[in-house]
Amino acid sequence: MIVEKKKINRFFLLATGPFLGMFIFMMLSFKTIHVEVQTASYVPAKTLAAQSERLKQNLDKAEQTVQATISSIRRTSALYKQTTAAMNAIVKTAQTQAERPETIYNRRISAKLGVPFERVESSRIRIELYHVNPGVYQGYAMKVKLKDQNAMQMTLGRDKVGGAETTLQAVNRYGAVAGINAGGFADSGGKRYPLSTTVLNGKYVNGFEPSFKDLFFVGLNDAGKLIGGKFSNQAELDRLKPRFGATFVPVLLKNGQPMPIPDKWKTSPNRAPRTVIGNYKDDQLLIIVVDGYNESGGSGATLQELQSKMYGLGIVDAYNLDGGGSSSLIVSGRVVNHPSDGNLRPVPTHFLFFK
């Protein structure tokens, strides 16, 4: 039995030896593993109170900064408003001062015409109507301030060469606020053609014709200023950049000076209904339309009388437009003057004014 137990013990030692050796080897080879358990650190109450106080102070500072910023913005806004108001006042004052000479001049020229009996004004135009009655004739003056150069246009009768219509028809057809007859005409083949050089929308209707005898051209340029006179060649007129214009006889004033009136037009006829147009030095227009009961020479005004009238009113350049039964003045849809024919005459060209 003892021998067998020894054998068995030796057998177990031999059997478990390798495992036991391996275990011992592993124990010696691996380092000891430390497991650290971190526990929550303890913060004293005094520390928490100090941190809270610092946080409160920081918030107070932030609030003060915000309030200071808001206050600064308000001051800046108030200063901006004050500055803007001051600048607007300066601009308004400067504008008023700049307009003062024009206002004074307008009052001076208007005073010579009297008190207007009708006024039309918009952002584009100002029209004032006056009675003209020096004792020897009666008529109407229409002073026009073009705020927009396109507020005055010229039209052909029924929009075609050879066509004719009354100024009232042209005014109504185009929706204009006012209108007058323009240049002279010649009848041929049952049609009524504009006389000599005529410009519409910057183009020559029937080409350029050099001025001859007592004829002249009058119209507006592309800047809305009255232009006119006699032109021996097209280049002379082109330099003035005409936008529209018509032709008749004669010139009454040029550069503020009376022009010689040809003897023919002093007596043929002596008196007649008339339409004349001129400009002041500030580019306002003055149109005078004189009444007459016929074209025989016994009623209306002479050209010398109208020349003298325009000169006395301070007109710079003045031109006689077609007269007699052609004279017409339309304002706000009604005929202001008294046509000598008893009714308005159809003519081929009209000057129209728009609100």
From TrEMBL:
Keywords: Coiled coil, Membrane, Transmembrane, Transmembrane helix. Residues 174-354 form the Phosphodiester glycosidase domain. Residues 45-72 form a coiled coil. InterPro entries: NAGPA. The chain crosses the membrane at residues 12-30. This is Phosphodiester glycosidase domain-containing protein. The lineage of its organism: Bacteria, Bacillati, Bacillota, Bacilli, Bacillales.
